[in-house]
């Protein structure tokens, strides 16, 4: 049994892709830039909002000053629309409640900006479920760099050496995040990326359903 589970957020706990894509396309439209299909945004996200902004911006609009302005625009638009279509994956709140009832400690670690990560978790989940909710902070390298994961584990008082801490996510970034911190990873198949990506990245477990994830954690 895994006693502590660290969860990715977007594509793992919450389906946020439509609000992210719609907000980005609103920014693109305002500038007369090409808009992108939602399917493309599944690969634009995962490395933090600044990288998302860089990826949806035209190549000739990626100088540092322009990107900084576009990032500020995106933050404003997404802040106003982050709850339009976002929702927990079906069965996720119930799964988290069962894990909590079995004594599992849980936390969230996301590359989403910290203020946005905290806001969506607070809106869609019971406040007692997660001991810590942490998003991207200015002075901490984004995932898959290990510093943030290690700091989170230190605050929880857990170590990779104990063998009872699991990281759960939906992309190769999450698998690399887990491995860089010395943790096993369970890749979920309902998120933004594919089974093949998770397998190639070396995920120790794959979960296609909430029941699959529950078995990985508890058994």
Which sheet architecture does the biggest sheet show?
A: 6 strands, parallel
Mean pLDDT: 97
Determine the CATH topology of the largest domain. Answer: Rossmann fold
CA gyration radius, whole angstroms = 17 Å
As laid out across the biggest beta sheet, the strand order is 5-4-1-6-7-8
DSSP helix count? 10
Structural class, by secondary structure, is alpha/beta
The counted number of beta strands is: 8
Kindly provide the name of the CATH class of the largest domain.
Alpha Beta
* Secondary-structure element pattern, one letter each: EEHHHHEHEHEHEHEHEH
Structural domains: how many:
2
Describe this structure in words.
The chain has two domains: 144 residues, HAD superfamily/HAD-like (Rossmann fold), CATH 3.40.50; 65 residues, DNA polymerase, domain 1. It is built from ten helices and eight strands. The strands form two sheets. The protein has a six-stranded parallel beta sheet with strand order 5-4-1-6-7-8, with helices on both faces. Strands 2-3 form a two-stranded antiparallel sheet. The protein starts with a strand and ends with a helix.
């Amino acid at each position: 049994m895994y006693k502590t589970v660290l969860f990715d957020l977007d594509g793992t706990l919450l389906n946020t892709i439509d609000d992210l894509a719609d907000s980005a396309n609103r920014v693109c439209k305002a500038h007369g830039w090409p808009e992108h299909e939602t399917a493309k945004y599944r690969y634009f996200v995962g490395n933090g909002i600044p990288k998302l902004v860089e990826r949806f911006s035209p190549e000739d609009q990626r100088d540092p000053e322009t990107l900084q302005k576009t990032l500020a625009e995106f933050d404003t638009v997404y802040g106003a629309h982050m709850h339009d279509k976002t929702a927990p994956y079906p069965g996720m709140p119930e799964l988290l409640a069962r894990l909590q009832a079995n004594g599992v400690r849980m936390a969230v670690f996301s590359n989403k900006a910290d203020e946005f990560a905290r806001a969506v978790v607070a809106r869609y989940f019971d406040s007692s479920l997660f001991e810590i909710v942490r998003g991207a902070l200015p002075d901490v390298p984004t995932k898959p760099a290990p510093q943030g994961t290690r700091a989170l584990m230190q605050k929880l008082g857990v170590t990779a050496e104990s063998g009872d801490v699991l990281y759960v996510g939906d992309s190769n970034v999450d698998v690399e995040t887990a491995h860089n911190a010395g943790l096993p990873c369970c890749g979920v198949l309902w998120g933004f990326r594919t089974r093949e990506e998770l397998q190639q990245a070396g995920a120790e477990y794959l979960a296609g359903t909430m029941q699959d994830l529950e078995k990985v954690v508890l058994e």
